[in-house]
Amino acid sequence: LEKERGQVNFNVEELTNIYDGGAEETKLRRKVADVIQNDPEVRCKDIGMMTREERYIDGVRRCVYLYKVLLPREGWTPVSKEVKDYFKYRNIGKERSFGVHAGVFIPCLLSFGSDEQIAKWLPLAMQFQIIGTYAQTEMGHGTFLRGLQTTATYDKKNKEFVINCPEISAMKWWPGDLGKSANHALLMAQLVIDGKKYGMHPFMVQIRDLTTHMPLPGITVGDIGNKVGFETTDNGFLHLNQVRIPRENLLCKNAEVKPNGTYLTKASDKMVYGSMVRLRAIILESEAVSALGKACTIAVRYSLVRCQGELEPGKPEVSVMEYMTQQKKLLPYVAMTYVTHFACLKLSNQYNAFTREMDNNDISGLPELHALSAGMKAVVSEQCSDGIEILRKSCGGHGYSNASGIPIIWSSAVACCTYEGENTVMLLQCARYLVKCINQVQTTRMVGSVAYLNNMTQSTCHVDSVSGFKQLDVLVACFQYRAREVLKTAALKLSHLTKHGMASYNAWNQSSVELVNVVKAHITQFIVTTFASGITELECTKPVKNVLQQLCALYALSCINASTGDFLKVGYLSPRQCDLAHEAELELLSCIRPNAVGLVDAFDFSDDLLQSCLGAYDGNVYERLFAWAKKSPLNKTEVTIYQQYIQIRLIGRRKAF
Ligand SMILES: CCCCCCCC(=O)SCCNC(=O)CCNC(=O)[C@H](O)C(C)(C)COP(=O)(O)OP(=O)(O)OC[C@H]1O[C@@H](n2cnc3c(N)ncnc32)[C@H](O)[C@@H]1OP(=O)(O)O
Ligand SMILES: Cc1cc2nc3c(=O)[nH]c(=O)nc-3n(C[C@H](O)[C@H](O)[C@H](O)COP(=O)(O)OP(=O)(O)OC[C@H]3O[C@@H](n4cnc5c(N)ncnc54)[C@H](O)[C@@H]3O)c2cc1C
Fold first, then answer.
1. What is the ipTM of this complex?
2. Of 420, 485, 585, 587, which is the active-site residue?
3. pTM score, two decimals?
């Protein structure tokens, strides 16, 4: 790898600083990483050999130590930048404990609680005197929130709410930290007053005794069992049987129930969805893009040291990175990590701007933010988790071992396709907004992520050279035209179906397969446009700008070459231009290849964080693999009990004969 590093033609540290958002950010992140790596109590462990129970207990222990010992020792608070960096870069799949408490329960308390309620519960939550979960999803409903069955019926006489799960499908199912850790739940239930339903509302419900940690009367709670990943998280079930809570436990920033049962709404009913917009807008970096970056680091470093086969007959074996097919598997995902990282940054900045507007009671930006966050969450989580699996396979047999570190990264990242809104449902939410926009574009000027719809002129691409397809303005135009045209076609189909008498809900269902593709085109347009404009404004050395431009072009071309049908159907690219775009991608792979190790080094993931025998900085793969395998519990004895049992059985049988 040192030889590879010698040929990198840009300043890796400069790129790290750009990726982090500045040299000071890099310094802070490294300070946090040093603290973690040098403290045996929280440093990342190789949990590949641990049982589920050991992982859960280890995760809880580390998190309690982090909050109770490390933070006070370092002078940090749970919301200080260092802790955010800790969780942004913590090892995916390793420290999930209290992820929902810290990342969902507390923010939702701030979103839904009145000032008095925040003053009451926030200090307790921040000090871990109460551990909370966010209990919305039920065994029978996760997507269709209007179908949630848990009820909160107001009892005027006692000024209480009676929380009840009327049937097994109403049981809360999946909430993180619920199974064994939480003693409180921020519970979403259908509010009922005098027999009238008011929709989903947030309630604070204590579920366990604060001293004994035993479930309170009427509460049945536990862990839902083993999963694909998230092994350190006790995703749980919660059944409530006529559980009574005080009237004051309805979190009432947006709506309240007076003592006499009068219902008072204070904000748009869509604000109850606000918590989901927040998480969709901010989790992508840590849960999807960072995971892809780790997998890229492992797969690229391994591919550079793994020698397999002759490229030129009779010559020494080459590293598998010399094969174009390997470069095609790896380098577009290195590009995707950079490109989506900056698009996610733009989305989270847009969310932060919206929260400031919301403080001034202006929620006009919510529809665009909901659509963009839903679309980005679906497209980025799917592209990243699909990419991680391709990167795992690119490592051959050793990629199938937990020693590579990639399976645990994938098993965690792929969950992002489901939680916080199942991806297809999220794509269709974004499609709702896009169809509204295209139908208004004749009379209303579009802004934000749909600004490209203002240009409705028909055109075609005029590029007639391979190098022309490496120009960012050409690529941005390709994506904007394709996104607009596929949206127009889908909207026309919708209006055609309804004009010919089909009910609108049925027309929507009949068009939903195209609409999913429309949103993917819209979001990749947003990602490419964002990165291309970001590079233009970026102040950096020429070699770094050049490599970023190559990455943007590579990501764009890999997307175009994966969906040339769209570009042909809308008449923007000719078959010959599709061939030129394909050649442009291959040329870019060769241009970027010499910088591959520098591009993943710039992500700056420490060996401790990667926990990978294949992806360590020094590239000593085989020594690490053998040392790792020897730790297998099966190797504690030369002859395992099972082998002895088999021998006895076989010997016994021979004697019998
Ligand atoms: C580190 C890892 C941590 C992991 C933590 C994981 C935590 C979780 O998973 S918590 C559970 C997450 N669950 C979800 O996200 C549920 C997904 N489902 C939904 O959002 C809704 O059911 C939904 C909107 C898709 C469909 O519901 P439905 O009632 O049919 O709403 P629908 O008719 O489509 O929309 C109603 C209106 O609300 C709007 N709306 C819907 N959702 C939102 C939102 N989040 N924000 C703003 N507006 C919204 C729609 O745009 C629509 O507006 P309009 O009528 O003007 O077009
Ligand atoms: C690791 C993990 C952690 C989680 N943590 C939490 C948590 O802390 N708190 C919490 O409340 N929940 C949590 N969840 C639950 C999660 O939010 C739900 O699983 C998610 O919202 C999807 O809902 P569902 O499971 O009911 O899927 P469903 O909605 O039943 O989806 C099943 C299939 O139906 C399709 N489908 C459903 N509705 C439509 C539609 N209208 N149009 C087209 N297709 C549709 C979907 O696309 C999907 O293919 C977690 C889940 C996971 C996996």
1. 0.97
2. 420
3. 0.95
